[in-house]
Amino acid sequence: GSFNKLDAILAPHRKTSEDYVVFLVDEFFEDEPLTQRIPSKWQDKVIWVNVEDEPTTLQTDAFTREILSVERMPSVVVGIGGGSVMDYAKAVSLMLTNKGESKDFQGLDLIQNQGVYCVVVPTISGTGAEVSMTAVLTGPDKKLGIKCDFTVPDQLILDPDLIENVPNPQRFYTAMDCYIHNIEALNGSLKNEFSIGYAEKSLDLCREVFLDDIDRKIADEKLMVASYFGGLSLTYSMVGVCHALSYGLSYVLHTHHGLANCLVFNQLKEYYPKGVTRFHEMLQKQNIHLPTNVVKNANLSDEQMEKMIKTALDLDFMWYHALGPDWKTKMTPEKARELYLKM
Q1: Is the distance from CB of 105 to CB of 51 less than 8 angstroms?
Q2: Residue 275 and residue 179: Cα distance in Å, rounded?
Q3: What is the mean pLDDT of residues 69-74?
């Protein structure tokens, strides 16, 4: 029921009658009861967000232009939805106060100015976008996040009631993003006691949710906290082999992030043996059947395959964390191609 507090959270930012709030909301809810609970006033703007595709720099810039067409800057940007909507909210809040195109800010600490006050409300759990310092966007040349201290949302509402009707396998794929965050955070050179503590607790919760027989309502509460802790683990660590390869997969095949991670992680026993073994147990317990031969059946051209590999291998900071300073000798283009063709 914590979603009911959103109006009170926004109230201090409505200092005059001209102050308004922009709500970015997953269009799935356009005809759902949740719409009637959004505390929008007459002067506010509600933008329905299509999330069929991964978030893009192009759409981020379009949202920003639409908002800037109003003479007055909004006092708050609210994102209500999954990781895609939350990443859009985070990116738009920054682009409203930083001139240029969002593609120019894909990278680390390129943002100069703090964004508009940002509130996020996840309606599916696992991405960790609700607390992470990254807004992941697909641009014309790469899939990469806008990452800096300013990207972290200013306010977060976790309400397990909002995720109670998320169906499988979508629920599972998104939750596995969290599970994989933790595995990668714990298995690399950039971890510290903060990342270890958050990741280990998040892993425990993931195992309870997907391997134990517990009530769905209790499971949803645990999953929301697992996602939150998983996102925090990355603040003090880094993702690794799976996310690097999944970025390439999503960039070329437009595979949604959660599913892409599952397709990749399924083939990474060489790098994360215990994590992949437990992942297979969760797949079986939840009766999830991953698609097979996704890359082979795509009949990619040589150019597309090279683009997929290059997108992955350009993420050197992920590879450094996962495989060490000599990572290029361990993850060659040939090795990446071999792994992709197994997916």
Answers
A1: no
A2: 9
A3: 91
In the chain, the amino acid numbered 317 is F
Q: Which amino acid is it at 22?
A: V
What pairing do the DSSP bridges indicate for beta strands 155-156 and 21-26?
Answer: unpaired
Residue 321 pLDDT > 90: yes
Cα separation, 339 vs 272, whole angstroms = 14
Note if the pTM is more than 0.70. Answer: yes
The H or E element spanning position 265 is: helix 257-265
The residue written with tokens 């082999």 in the block is 241
Considering just the CA atoms, what is the radius of gyration of the chain in Å?
Answer: 20
Cis peptide preceding 140, ω within 30 of 0: no
Given a contact cutoff of 8 angstroms between Cβ atoms, the answer to whether 176 and 279 are in contact is yes
CB-count burial class (<10 Å; 0-12, 13-18, 19+) for 287: exposed
Structure tokens at 115: 């964004």
Q: Which backbone phi and psi does 159 adopt, to 5 degrees? A: -130, 105
